[in-house]
């Protein structure tokens, strides 16, 4: 497999023990993962999607991070927000409303 242009991480609040616990999971981050994967494929994005353990941004969850751009997005709670973020990524821009500073 060649390295993708983008790597998208979605916090799923997993702990080292494998237990799902935390705000991102409780706010439905894991439910968005199939949608994000589908959008990556539908849009033809050269991106890899990874579900992660806790990213220590609980007050801003669910959290989505895109590398190598180092864009940290918070409060990613719906498919509409995901669309805004991926639209910006396709345009070489960022979805400023959701950026974590």
Write up what this structure looks like.
The chain is of the alpha+beta class and 101 residues long. The chain has one domain (6-98): Glutaredoxin (3-Layer(aba) Sandwich). The chain is 31% helix and 23% strand. It is built from 3 helices and 4 strands. It has helices at residues 23-26, 29-43, 79-90, and strands spanning 6-14, 47-53, 64-67, 71-73. The protein has a 4-stranded mixed beta sheet with strand order 2-1-3-4. The protein is globular. The protein starts with 5 loop residues before the first strand and ends in an 11-residue tail after the last helix. The model has no long low-confidence stretch (mean pLDDT 92).
Query: Main β-sheet, in a few words?
Result: 4 strands, mixed
Q: How many helices does DSSP assign?
A: 3
Which geometry do the CA atoms define?
globular
Structural class: alpha+beta
CATH class division: Alpha Beta
Radius of gyration, whole Å = 13 Å
Low-confidence stretches: none
Q: How far apart lie the N and C ends?
A: 33 Å
Question: CATH topology, which one?
Answer: Glutaredoxin
Can you identify the CATH superfamily? Glutaredoxin
Structure summary, number of beta strands: 4
Count the domains: 1
Q: Give the proportion of residues in helices.
A: 25-40%
Question: What proportion of the residues form beta strands (DSSP E)?
Answer: 15-25%
- Which architecture per CATH? 3-Layer(aba) Sandwich
**Average pLDDT across residues?**
92
Strand order of the largest sheet: 2-1-3-4
- SSE pattern: EHHEEEH
């Amino acid at each position: 497999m060649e390295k993708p242009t983008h790597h998208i991480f979605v916090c799923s609040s997993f702990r080292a023990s494998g237990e799902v616990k935390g705000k991102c999971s409780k706010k439905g981050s894991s439910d968005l993962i199939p949608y994000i994967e589908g959008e990556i494929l539908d849009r033809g994005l050269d991106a890899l999607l990874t579900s992660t353990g806790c990213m220590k941004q609980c007050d801003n969850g669910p959290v989505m991070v895109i590398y190598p751009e180092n864009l940290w997005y918070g409060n990613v709670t719906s498919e509409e927000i995901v669309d805004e973020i991926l639209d910006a990524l396709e345009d070489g821009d960022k979805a400023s409303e959701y950026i974590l500073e």
